[in-house]
Automatic annotation (TrEMBL):
Binding site for GMP: 95-99, 137-138
Catalytic activity: IMP + diphosphate = hypoxanthine + 5-phospho-alpha-D-ribose 1-diphosphate; XMP + diphosphate = xanthine + 5-phospho-alpha-D-ribose 1-diphosphate; GMP + diphosphate = guanine + 5-phospho-alpha-D-ribose 1-diphosphate
Example of a GO cellular component annotation carried by this entry: plasma membrane
Record pathway: Purine metabolism; GMP biosynthesis via salvage pathway; GMP from guanine: step 1/1; Purine metabolism; XMP biosynthesis via salvage pathway; XMP from xanthine: step 1/1
Organism of this sequence: Acidisphaera rubrifaciens HS-AP3
Limits of the Phosphoribosyltransferase domain: 10-147
Sequence similarity: Belongs to the purine/pyrimidine phosphoribosyltransferase family. XGPT subfamily.
Name assigned to this protein: Xanthine-guanine phosphoribosyltransferase
Main localization (coarse): membrane
Pfam families: Pribosyltran
Binding of xanthine, residues: 95, 138
Amino acid sequence: MATHYYTVTWDQLHRDGRALAWRLMERGPVRGVVAITRGGLIPAAIVARELEIRLIESVSVVTYDEEARGEPVVVKAPAAAGDGEGFVIIDDLVDTGTTARIVRALLPRAAFACIYAKPAGRDIADVFVTEVSQDTWILFPWDTEPQFVAPLAKRPPG
């Protein structure tokens, strides 16, 4: 169970996505991006826009059945990316690296980039923006919604 939570707003995600694109520009030209669904879709769109990339592919790896972790299964392969040459794989987060390693095996010549990296998976990322502790749960903007919170003075004691 996570002991820390890190809330990411849409504005922060956009800034971090642009920072990721900047770091990828420094590495040289990118021909296409492969978004790992679902978390990598929005970061991939930001990177593709910033690098003026039109060739966008996706890959889907399922590692959960309901709430139980199972054997990872590739349910949609990134056919248009070939062996990955000239492509960058984009995800929102690398946690343990399980999904990233599977996708890298499919695209051995691609680079792997993510916005957030945890220590257990950091080694698989060629480029990332922010490192968070392994016990941090990142609350992405697509998983949360703003809601009204009563002022402290109006809340019941306790």
